TrEMBL record:
<dbReference type="GO" id="GO:0055087">
    <property type="term" value="C:Ski complex"/>
</dbReference>
<keyword id="KW-0677">Repeat</keyword>
<dbReference type="GO" id="GO:0006401">
    <property type="term" value="P:RNA catabolic process"/>
</dbReference>
<feature type="repeat" description="TPR">
    <location>
        <begin position="596"/>
        <end position="629"/>
    </location>
</feature>
<keyword id="KW-0802">TPR repeat</keyword>
<dbReference type="Pfam" id="PF13432">
    <property type="entry name" value="TPR_16"/>
</dbReference>
<feature type="repeat" description="TPR">
    <location>
        <begin position="418"/>
        <end position="451"/>
    </location>
</feature>
<protein>
    <submittedName>
        <fullName>TTC37 protein</fullName>
    </submittedName>
</protein>
<dbReference type="InterPro" id="IPR019734">
    <property type="entry name" value="TPR_rpt"/>
</dbReference>
<feature type="repeat" description="TPR">
    <location>
        <begin position="40"/>
        <end position="73"/>
    </location>
</feature>
<dbReference type="Pfam" id="PF13181">
    <property type="entry name" value="TPR_8"/>
</dbReference>
<dbReference type="InterPro" id="IPR011990">
    <property type="entry name" value="TPR-like_helical_dom_sf"/>
</dbReference>
<dbReference type="Pfam" id="PF13174">
    <property type="entry name" value="TPR_6"/>
</dbReference>
<feature type="repeat" description="TPR">
    <location>
        <begin position="562"/>
        <end position="595"/>
    </location>
</feature>
<dbReference type="InterPro" id="IPR039226">
    <property type="entry name" value="Ski3/TTC37"/>
</dbReference>
Length: 689
């Protein structure tokens, strides 16, 4: 076949394709290839005809052969693009991207419009595949080409916005280059807007700031962008809120940060970040009650702030609200987002504080949870302070051997660590080895004299060591006072002081003041509350006693505060107010249905009210719970006697006298019953009885 015949055959093939006679076209092309096996046009026509005949593999092979022969010719690449675009197979998308890139390369120096069309398709393909870096690079190149082509500001603004939309889902998992290209897009978009100021421009700025706030290392850019927005929109609080949250999350509490919090609160007094910032300032100034109040209020408005929850937990720990601090730590852990290096560090701090709260709660379940929290901290095994905490958790759980092992190892490896000596002291104290405990707590105080708990436990060690040390003001009292001075929120040390003033110094007034202080700090401290009430009664100050009891009972939920209900019920009973006494003593019984004394007191109140049957049931219950309560057994007999059931009363009196022969009330009651029965017999002429 001559070259003239080859041209004729290719012309026939082209005609056949135009007429949709694809098989005919294939025949002509194959005839050409027999003569010229590297004929580019023939391979392109075969690809086109095979594609139309739904023979994709043959079409692909033909196009690939063509591009091998002439890699810089458009036709074969266009054919491959059309073939891959129609394919439903996922594995061709990578090949299609390569084809688009080649087409862009071929169009770049010539047809700019076609280059833009292919670029759009390539970006869409990358976006479907979530290849955000490729999306960013390609679209950035697209904008550059448009800029060089003389696109106006409005068109470029829309293109930058489109780039932001394309990369919107990339912020959770992106590399530095994608991040920088996204931020560049935001900068160009806010700076190229024609409508300034406007709501659309304002929202764009907000999105930019929101995006920047996700990248901890972009703090300078974030601050500048917030400042720029505030200059344009001075009445909008959003940039101040973001800046405030940034300062809170990064732990930056400079004068600049405080100024930011103040400005935000001036603009919006209900702003969550502003109130949280104010609370942190109070925490730094040791105004713990104000700190808790502000932080709680702020977190109700801005709950997704892990640092805010952490600072709230810190303030609650300072006030020894350990249960509340635990809840705050759990909230902080719940709200922590994806953890970068700073996030891991923050999580470790929260877990440590959570462990400290659980150790202070001091029961076996809390100890187990504390150990679990410490195990989640990276490198906890190499941190001596965390090891000391683990030792305390083991001690609370009753694992003395494990606690002692940690104590021994810490004292060898870190002899100057106060926490190591304190742990040793806690172990000796729990074993009642008071001499050794004294030495350990003294060593701990030498190294950290500002820790109130060490002074308190040294005071307690002297309290239990001997009567001599208990009465020694220079030992017990001095350390209790030192602890109270160092930590004015440490409620149980005020209870210790109350015990000292009541039992050793005999100063009831001062003791009552200490118990009241302890109870004000910890409303769950029944020992202090009860002691404050008892001393108030002894001092003849019933108003104070009732004030304490009323405060507790008003706040108490059903089934709680037994001691307060019992105390007030007995007061009402003593002062001749049986109706109120019954109500309070019933509440005490609900709080502890197995307390025989509560039932006995309730029986007495019911009897005073004239409810004999109810009183009988209460005294019977008391005697069932504690058969040694002779008074309750006696009272069941007296009620039976009152009800005219003399035989039943006699049987009960006799039971009492079997155990206690000289119990005078029972003897008297038994005599009265016999006398009444005798009198009744005489009245009925049964003289023989």
């Amino acid at each position: 076949m001559s070259s003239k015949e080859v041209k004729a055959a290719l012309k026939s093939a082209r005609e056949a394709i135009r007429n949709k006679e694809y098989k005919e076209a294939l025949k002509h092309c194959k005839a050409v290839l027999k003569q010229e096996k590297n004929n580019y046009t023939a391979w392109v026509f075969i690809g086109l005809a095979a594609a139309e005949l739904e023979q994709p593999d043959q079409a692909k092979g033909a196009y690939k052969k063509a591009v091998e022969l002439e890699p810089n010719q458009l036709l074969a690449w266009q054919g491959l693009a059309n073939l891959y675009e129609k394919s439903n197979q996922m594995d061709v998308k990578g090949d299609l991207a390569d084809v688009y890139q080649k087409l862009m390369e071929l169009y770049e120096s010539g047809d700019k419009q076609k280059w833009c069309d292919v670029c759009n398709k390539l970006v869409e393909l990358y976006h479907q595949e979530k290849k955000y870096l490729e999306v960013a690079r390609t679209w950035h190149k697209f904008i550059q080409v448009k800029e060089e082509g003389g696109a106006d500001n409005a068109e470029l603004h829309q293109l930058w916005k489109k780039m932001i939309q394309l990369l919107a889902d990339s912020t959770q998992n992106q590399d530095n280059e994608t991040e920088q290209l996204l931020l560049t897009a935001f900068e160009h978009a806010v700076n190229s807007s024609d409508s300034v100021p406007s709501e659309e421009h304002q929202n764009l700025y907000k999105d930019f700031i929101r995006c920047l706030s996700k990248f901890p290392h972009e703090k300078l850019r974030l601050k500048k962008t917030c400042d720029d927005m505030m200059a344009l929109y001075p009445t909008v609080s959003y940039p101040l809120e973001v800046l405030s949250l940034h300062f809170i999350q990064s732990g930056t509490f400079t004068e600049e940060a405080q100024h930011c919090f103040s400005r935000l609160l001036e603009m919006d007094s209900n702003s969550g970040p502003g109130i949280i910032g104010s609370g942190i300032k109070c925490l730094q100034e040791r105004k713990y009650e104000e700190a808790v109040k502000s932080l709680t209020e702020g977190l109700q408005k801005t709950s997704q702030c892990p640092s805010g929850w952490y600072y709230l937990a810190q303030a609650q720990m300072k006030m020894h609200k350990h249960q509340e601090a635990l809840l705050s730590c759990n909230q902080a852990l719940k709200t922590l987002g994806p953890l970068g290096s700073s996030g891991v560090e923050q999580k470790n701090l929260v877990l440590q504080l959570k462990a400290e709260a659980l150790i202070k709660i001091a029961n076996a379940d809390a100890a187990e949870e504390a150990i679990n929290a410490l195990e989640q901290i990276a490198d906890a095994g190499s941190d001596p302070v965390l090891l000391a905490l683990r030792g305390q958790a083991y001690l609370n759980k009753g694992l003395m051997e494990e606690a002692s092992k940690i104590s021994h190892e810490l004292l060898l490896s870190h002899p100057d660590l106060a926490e190591a000596h304190a742990l040793e002291g806690f172990i000796h104290y729990s074993q009642k080895n008071y001499k050794q405990a004294e030495k350990s707590f003294q060593n701990a105080i030498e190294r950290k004299a500002e820790i109130a708990e060490y002074h308190q436990y040294l005071g307690l060690t002297y309290w239990f060591m001997s009567d001599e040390t208990k009465k020694d003001k220079g030992k017990t009292l001095t350390h209790f006072l030192k602890a109270a001075k160092l930590d004015t929120y440490l409620g149980n040390v005020f209870c210790c002081l109350g015990n000292y003033y009541r039992d050793i110094a005999g100063d009831k007034s001062r003791a009552r003041g200490c118990y009241r202080k302890a109870f004000e700090l910890d409303g769950t401290d029944e020992e202090s509350g009860s002691a404050a009430v008892d001393l108030s009664v002894e001092l003849g100050d019933m108003d104070t006693a009732l004030s304490i009891l009323n405060e507790v009972t008003e706040k108490a939920s059903t089934g709680t505060a037994k001691w307060a209900w019992l105390h007030r019920g007995l007061y009402y009973l003593r002062t001749g107010q049986p109706l109120q006494a019954v109500v309070d003593l019933q509440a005490a019984v609900r709080a502890d249905p197995k307390d025989a004394n509560c039932w006995e007191s309730l029986g007495e109140a019911c009897l005073s009210r004239g409810s004999h049957m109810t009183a009988l049931k209460a005294f019977t219950k008391a005697s069932e719970l504690n058969p040694e309560l002779v008074y309750s057994v006696y009272k069941t007999a007296t009620i039976q006697q009152l009800l005219g059931k003399y035989k039943e009363a006699i049987a009960i009196y006799q039971e009492i006298l079997k155990k206690t022969k000289d119990y005078m009330p029972a003897l008297k009651g038994l005599g009265e019953c016999y006398f009444t029965l005798a009198k009744s017999a005489l009245d009925q002429y049964f003289d023989g009885k």
